[in-house]
């Protein structure tokens, strides 16, 4: 029997259909140019964006520029040992990092390798570094508070679980301290924490790890560290890798996670370095055009999952450093528009001794209000307004000495409030104690206390309540409410404490 030519080609086509040509073939390419941590590789035709590439000497790289004749790739551990002509192998997978509970308490590099001289951990679970954020239907509104333990934040700029709250300010204004205090405050709340250091001095990160250890906060925390001496691609990778670790806790364990990105200004700079070396066209301030997407796709991964899929949340606290308080620069405005609010820190306040140096007027929280407890709302409702009035009157009072009584009272009250909001390092205040302290100030118990005594007065007040009315504190903590009966009791106790308080200097 004779087979027609048409028949043959049909048979051949049938056989070939559905055959995966890439299946058994390992695709390798050749380095055609190398330098500045970037390799251009020829011959990787099917290479995916973000794909992990393996160099002949074991170095890892990530494909970022997919061009017609070559692939631009960044190397994570420098270009040592890679030469023109070196072979590069595709791995057919994007970058993954190890995830899981074994990572808690450890200091890792952005590739997920321990750098704390501790034992190796054996987790076989990994997650992709770049992942799609959950969609609208998988989320629910933010309504559970994330207590930072910082009085001015919890009272006036409340943060909810699943929120993205920016911490912004000049250098050395206490940005990191606020984030670290928030982590320390999660000791007893069950919220897991991840601190991501991007482009910081290794000694500073070592100091932070030490602080976390000393305050018993390391057992619920992972530190992901890319120091300023690390290559730009590693710094670029750090927040995404850390976010993947957070996602494991959120999606698999349904835990609540707090993640601190310290800081995204340096992250943008590392991305700019990489992009310029990859010869991508520079835009405003020499950042590449997609620098907005760089941070939006990261911060969008913070979420509060709906109860249908088990709940869990990632709260993100990105940090941005400004120059001379300029919040209208490129990167600050970008991140302000992505996040759900910002905590604005000011050098002037910091140096005048008002610490944490939060400028309440410029700070907002767009969604956290719904997460605040009723008790806190009750005592902190008018706080913002009173402080704003105080600042306004303060300016006026500098000119004239003739002030009427009500103005003088408002000024006095404002000064006492400002003094109450001062808080030292690593001394988080629990919610119920915050409520008592603010109630006491609101009811003008501080009226006749001199400013120098306010801090001692407030500390003593909390101790007094702990001794005399522990059950009352517990009921505020558990119910989150300040019922009229409780309020009466709190007022009685405040009066009793005021009677027994001894001012340090008479008159
Ligand atoms: P950088 O720009 O270097 O990252 P930063 O804005 O993160 O600085 P921190 O490192 O948190 O600032 O704080 C700067 C200094 O201020 C530290 O020495 C810290 O101890 C001190 N400091 C911060 N907050 C307070 C506070 N509430 N009370 C007293 N000192 C504080
Ligand atoms: Mg800092």
What is the CATH third-level topology name of the largest domain?
A: Rossmann fold
The major pleated sheet works out as:
8 strands, mixed
Into which percent range does the helicity of residues fall?
Answer: 25-40%
Instruction: Specify the overall morphology.
Output: elongated
The CATH architecture designation of the largest domain is 3-Layer(aba) Sandwich
CATH superfamily of the largest domain: P-loop containing nucleotide triphosphate hydrolases
* SS element count, helices: 16
Unreliable runs, pLDDT <50, ≥5 residues?
Answer: none
Q: What is the end-to-end distance?
A: 121 Å
Strand content: 15-25%
Strands of the biggest beta sheet: in what spatial order? 8-12-11-13-14-10-15-16
Mean pLDDT: 93
Distinct small molecules bound, one entry per kind: adenosine-5'-triphosphate, magnesium ion
Radius of gyration over C-alpha positions, nearest whole angstrom: 28 Å
Number of domains: 3
Overall strand count: 16
**CATH class category of the largest domain:** Alpha Beta
Outline:
The chain is an alpha/beta fold and 507 residues long.
How would you portray this structure in words?
By secondary structure, this protein is α/β, with parallel strands linked by helices. The chain folds into three domains: 28-94, Elongation Factor Tu (Ef-tu), domain 3; 98-372, Rossmann fold; 378-500, Lysin, CATH 1.20.150. Helix content is 38%, strand content 18%. The protein is built from 16 helices and 16 strands. A hairpin with a 2-residue loop joins β1 and β2. α5 (232-251) crosses α6, α7 (291-299) packs parallel to α8 and α11 (383-397) crosses α12 (405-421). The N and C termini lie far apart (121 Å). The structure holds adenosine-5'-triphosphate (ATP) and magnesium ion. Adenosine-5'-triphosphate binds at residues 169, 171-177, 321, 355-356, 423-425.
């Amino acid at each position: 029997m004779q087979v027609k030519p048409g028949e043959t080609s049909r048979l051949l086509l049938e056989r070939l259909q559905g055959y995966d040509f890439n299946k058994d073939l390992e695709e390798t390419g050749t380095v055609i140019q190398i330098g500045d941590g970037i390799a251009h590789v020829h011959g990787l035709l099917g290479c995916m964006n973000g794909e992990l590439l393996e160099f002949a000497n074991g170095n890892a790289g990530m494909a970022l520029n997919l061009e017609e004749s070559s692939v631009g790739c960044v190397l994570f551990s420098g270009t040592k040992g890679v030469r023109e002509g070196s072979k590069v192998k595709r791995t057919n997978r994007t970058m993954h990092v190890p995830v899981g509970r074994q990572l808690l308490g450890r200091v890792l590099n952005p590739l997920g390798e321990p750098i704390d001289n501790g034992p190796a951990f054996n987790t076989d679970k990994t997650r992709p570094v770049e992942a799609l954020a959950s969609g609208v239907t998988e989320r629910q509104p933010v309504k559970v508070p994330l207590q930072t333990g910082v009085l001015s934040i919890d009272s006036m700029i409340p943060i909810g679980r699943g929120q993205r709250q920016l911490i912004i300010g000049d250098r050395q204004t206490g940005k990191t301290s606020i984030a670290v205090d928030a982590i320390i405050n999660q000791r007893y709340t069950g919220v897991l924490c991840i601190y991501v250091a991007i482009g910081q001095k290794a000694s500073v990160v070592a100091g932070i790890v030490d602080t976390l250890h000393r305050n018993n906060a390391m057992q619920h925390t992972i530190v992901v560290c890319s120091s300023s001496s690390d290559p730009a691609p590693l710094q670029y990778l750090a927040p995404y890798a850390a976010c993947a670790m957070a996602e494991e806790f959120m999606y698999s364990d349904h835990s609540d996670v707090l993640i601190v990105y310290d800081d995204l200004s340096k992250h943008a700079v590392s991305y700019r370095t990489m992009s310029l070396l990859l010869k991508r066209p520079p835009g405003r301030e020499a950042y590449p055009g997609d620098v907005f997407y760089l941070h939006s796709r990261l911060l969008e991964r913070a979420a509060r999952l709906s109860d249908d899929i088990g709940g869990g949340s990632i709260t993100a606290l990105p940090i941005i450093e400004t120059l001379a308080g300029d919040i209208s620069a490129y990167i600050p405005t970008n991140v302000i528009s992505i996040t759900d609010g910002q905590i604005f820190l000011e050098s002037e306040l910091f140096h005048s001794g008002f610490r944490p140096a939060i400028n309440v007027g410029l700070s907002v929280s767009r969604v956290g209000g719904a997460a605040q407890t009723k008790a806190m709302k009750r005592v902190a409702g008018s706080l913002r307004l009173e402080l704003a009035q105080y600042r306004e009157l303060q300016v006026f009072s500098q000119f004239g000495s003739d002030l009427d009584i009500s103005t003088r009272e408002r000024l006095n009250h404002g000064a006492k409030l400002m003094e109450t909001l001062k808080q030292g390092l690593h001394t988080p205040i629990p919610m119920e104690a915050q409520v008592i302290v603010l109630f006491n100030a609101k009811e003008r118990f501080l009226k006749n206390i001199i400013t120098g005594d306010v801090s001692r007065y407030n500390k003593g007040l909390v101790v007094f309540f702990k001794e005399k009315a522990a059950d009352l504190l517990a009921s505020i903590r558990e119910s989150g409410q300040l019922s009229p009966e409780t309020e009466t009791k709190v007022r009685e106790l405040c009066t009793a404490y005021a009677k027994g308080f001894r001012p340090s200097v008479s008159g």
